[in-house]
Amino acid sequence: MSGDSWNGGTFTKKYVQRISKWLIAGGMASAVVGLLVLWRPVHSVAVFTVVLSFWFILLGVARIASALMVKGMPAVWRLLNALAGAFLVASGCLAGRYALLSAGVLLLFTSIMIGISWIFEGILAFFESAGSLGRFWSSLSSVLSLAGGIIVLAWPIRSITLLLRIAGFALVVYGAAAIARGVRLKR
Question: What is the span of the domain harbouring residue 155?
Answer without folding.
Answer: 13-186
